[in-house]
Amino acid sequence: MLSLCMIVKNEEDNLERCLKSVYDVVDEIIIVDTGSTDKTVDIAKKFGATVFYYKWNNDFSAARNFSLDKAKGDRILLMDADDALDEDGKKMINVLLEDDKIDAYLFETISYVGEEPGSDALSNLNVRLIKNKAEYRFIGAIHEQILISILNHGGNVAEVPIKVYHYGYLSKIIKEKDKRNRNMSILKKELKRDPDNPFHNFNIGAEYMALGDYERAYNYFKKSFYCSKDVKTGYTTKLIIRMIICLNQLNKVDEAFSLCNESIEKYPNVTDIMFLKGMLYHRINHYQEAINCFKRCIDMGEPPLIYRFITGVGGFKAYLAMGEVFMDIKDFDNAIECFLNSFRLNPSNKAILYKLSNAYFSRYDEKTAIEKIVSHFDVSPEAYTIISDIFFLNGKYHESLKFIDMALNSLKNNITYYIKGRTLMYLHKYGEAVECFEMIDGGEYILDSHINNIICRLLIGKDIKNPMLSLKKHFIEAYKVFFKFDLLLKKDVVLPIGVEDTGTYTNVIFIILDKLFEIQEFELFEKSLNMLNMVNEKDVLLRLGKLYYRHGAYKLAEEELTRSMKLFDIIDEEGMIILSNLCGKKEDKIS
Fold first, then answer.
1. What are the ranges of the TPR repeats (predicted)?
2. How many CA atoms lie within 13 A of 264 on its CB side?
3. 4: three-class secondary structure by DSSP
4. What 3-state DSSP class applies to 267?
5. What is the dihedral of CA 66, 67, 72, 75, to 10 degrees?
6. How far apart are CA 355 and CA 360, in angstroms?
7. Cα distance between residue 203 and residue 180, in whole Å
8. What is the DSSP string of 380-442?
9. In 3-state terms, what secondary structure has residue 33?
10. What are phi and psi of 284, to 5 degrees?
11. DSSP state of 171
């Protein structure tokens, strides 16, 4: 008999997907609810689950062990509500249940990261199937582990190529559930009790890394590394990989190379490290060395399951990275070949097609490039939407409009209206663009739609009251910026935002500036520059210089970057590279 054991809280968006993936291979479903206020429990009962209630006490192990105590099966399948068992894995589970010699099986967990499933993922091995023994219990208040107790009691453990897909690290879910703050709070308490615990230091470092605090993350990783130097752990190579990434982000390239070389010698079959070394070479413009590293990655293939972390480094990601190097050296034929190989290995990753389209437009005339791009898609409204977006990003606005209109023949949603509105805006058809933006009632594009709507209305002298009310309700920082901007246009006066931290407001101002420059509405752009007087951020000239450079206004870029250094002593690595590149550039779009 096989029991499924899970702990859940407010998982109505995930639980049905999970239970559908496993209900026909388990004999019993044990759900421990730790305080749901949505339809989670109803969904669980729909699948015949036995539901128990547990008062949450900030201890994941305690809750998980409570679920194990309720299981009647002789084997237990361990899942989270935001997991889904791979269809092929189901066929293997019955075979595993027949082998009484193995106490626990490790499955590969593919954790989707970023905005949507399939675009990027990380890999880990996790204990998923265990014998139901009282001595096999989780330890640790967070990032709880059961493998240690199984090994300490002499249990036999085996790896199997069964995949579990994990959706809990997608950006939207992390934000909605406030996972970072929750995890950080528990980890800080654990570290107070045991400050030299390498696993806790590793995990809190991972949280800081996810928040973009690479300095603090690296310091925790370094402590974890030295605390566990003589201890065999299952996460050592993942720790090293994260340390290399942090060093790169902190511009400590020499240290990153040193750690790469040292680690490649110690872990010669961990493809991830060779991949990161290639990325470092690309960063410092050592193009042939980078290509050699990525070719080596392809020869190595994916690392063994126990070491696997960055998915695709032995295949599609190596080809993709190599293609980007070839693009930099303007070897477009090889770039195209690399992107095609990458797409063949991972056809679900549409982002590769965006890279491929850039290569096609660089290599071929416009007609040929368009034909080649379209040839990679099936005939469907979803395909037309992606094609339209690709053409838009390559500045082919008339082609973009043609394909989004084809999509809208049968697919009318927030995304298609947004793409059409944005395209019309860049074609200076502002009145028609407004009509599209006003069809959008939610989703990830809503803020950008409101901003575009207001800009279009200002350009044709139309009232901005309705989109401003929406901004005030949902995006107060953007509302404050446009409120001041409207005053500026009407009265030619600029008032400061206030005493708050103005970083967020500055971001909104630069979104507006970027759009106005892109659509070449220079008169309104010049007036918009006065909004920078509303904020007190010392890097505004640096950011303005970068904006000018992106749009080919090289003389203005040089002026603003130079002013940033002279007035505020502010410059970064990217700014220095731009100034270096500007030495031979004289072209300018506006003066």
1. 271-304, 316-349
2. 19
3. strand
4. coil
5. -120
6. 9
7. 11
8. SHHHHHHHHHHHHHTT-HHHHHHHHHHHHTT--SHHHHHHHHHHHHHTT-HHHHHHHHTT--S
9. strand
10. -95, 15
11. H
> With 90 as the cut, is the pLDDT of residue 337 above it?
yes
The identity of residue 567, as a single letter, is L
Left (φ > 0), alpha (ψ -120 to 50) or beta: where does 51 sit?
beta
Please identify which residue in the block is written with the tokens 């209206």.
417
pLDDT at residue 345 is higher than 60: yes
The tokens for 314 are: 């032995």
CA dihedral 312, 313, 316, 321 (to 10 degrees): 140
Within 10 Å of residue 469's Cβ, how many Cβ atoms? 12
C-alpha 10/C-alpha 92 separation (Å) is 31
Is residue 581's pLDDT more than 90? no
Q: What is the pTM of this model?
A: 0.80
Measured CA to CA, the distance from residue 478 to residue 484 in angstroms comes to 10
Q: Are 301 and 272 in contact (CB under 8 A)?
A: no
Q: What are phi and psi of 281, to 5 degrees?
A: -60, -40
The architecture in CATH of the region 2-169 reads: Alpha-Beta Complex (3.90)
Q: Is 107 within 8 Å of 128 (Cβ atoms)?
A: yes
565 pLDDT more than 50: yes
Please state the length of the chain: 591
CA distances, 174 to each of 79, 139, 216, 548 (Å): 18, 24, 20, 34
Query: With left for phi above 0 and alpha for psi between -120 and 50, is residue 497 left, alpha or beta?
Result: alpha
Q: Are 588 and 522 in contact (CB under 8 A)?
A: no
Amino acid at 35: G
206-to-99, 184, 238, 276, 422 alpha-carbon distances in Å: 36, 10, 10, 18, 37
From CA 335, how far away is CA 355, in angstroms rounded? 9
3-state secondary structure 122-163: EEEEEEEEEECCCCCCCECCCCCECHHHHHHCCCCEEEEEEE
Tokens of 155: 């249990």
The ranges assigned to domains in the chain are: 2-169, 542-591
- Reported as a single tens digit per residue, the pLDDT across 453-500 is 999 999 999 999 999 998 888 888 888 888 888 888 877 665 555 544
CA 17 – CA 15 distance, rounded (Å): 5
Query: What is the pairing mode between strands 75-78 and 2-8?
Result: parallel
Q: Provide the pLDDT for residue 57.
A: 92
Cα angle value 146/151/157 (rounded, 5°): 85
* Distance separating alpha carbons of residues 367 and 96, to the nearest angstrom: 55
458: left (phi over 0), alpha (psi -120 to 50) or beta: alpha
